[in-house]
Amino acid sequence: MHFIIQRINRFSELLGHLLAWLTLVMALLLLTVVALRYVFEIGSIALQESVLYLHGAILLLGAGFTLKHDAHVRVDVFYRGFSKHQQAWVNLLGNLLFLLPVTVFIGAVSWEYVWVSWQRLEGSAEAGGLPLVFIQKSLILAFVVTFTLQAIAQLMISIGAIKGDD
C-alpha cells in the first residue's frame, strides 16, 4: 500500500511542479497579449486562446496536487478540533461518499462530450483561433484520472491512519 501511495504522490508532485512552470508561461503569454493589444494595437486570437488553454490545463490537472496538499476548500469548523483518527474517518468517508462518486460522475457525463469533439477534431470557432479544442476538452478526462488517482492515495492514507499505520 505504501508503494502505491508513494508512486501516486510522486506523480502528483511532478505534475504540480510542471504546472507551476506552466503558470509562469501563462502569465508571460498574458503579458504578451496585453502588450501587443495596448502598446502595439495588435490582437491575436491564438495567443488569447493559448492563455485560456493553459489556464484550463492548470486548473484541471492541478486538482490532484491540491488534494494531495489538503489545499482544497474545506469547512473546518469541526474537523480541525478532531483527533487524527477522527480526521482520517472524515477523510475516508468524504472520499468514498462524495469525492470519488462525483469524480466518476464527471467522467461518465463527459465521456461522450469529449468523444464527439475528437470525432470532429473540433477547433476554435474564432477566425485565427487554435484548432485544439478537442485536446482542451480531453483535459476533463485527464482531470478525472489524475484526481481519482490522488483520491485513491488519500483513501489509502486514511485507511492506514485508522489502522494505526504511520
From TrEMBL:
Topology with respect to the bilayer: Multi-pass membrane protein
Keywords annotated in UniProt: Cell inner membrane, Cell membrane, Membrane, Transmembrane, Transmembrane helix, Transport
Primary location group: membrane
Transmembrane portions of the chain: 14-38, 50-67, 88-111, 139-162
Organism domain of life: Bacteria
Transmembrane as UniProt keyword: yes
Span of domain Tripartite ATP-independent periplasmic transporters DctQ component: 26-155
Protein localization: Cell inner membrane
MF GO annotations: transmembrane transporter activity
Pfam families named in the record: DctQ
Membrane in keyword set: yes
Assigned GO CC terms: plasma membrane
Summary of the function given for this chain in its UniProt record: Part of the tripartite ATP-independent periplasmic (TRAP) transport system.
Similarity field: Belongs to the TRAP transporter small permease family.
SUBUNIT field: The complex comprises the extracytoplasmic solute receptor protein and the two transmembrane proteins.
Protein name as catalogued: TRAP transporter small permease protein
Lineage: Bacteria, Pseudomonadati, Pseudomonadota, Gammaproteobacteria, Alteromonadales
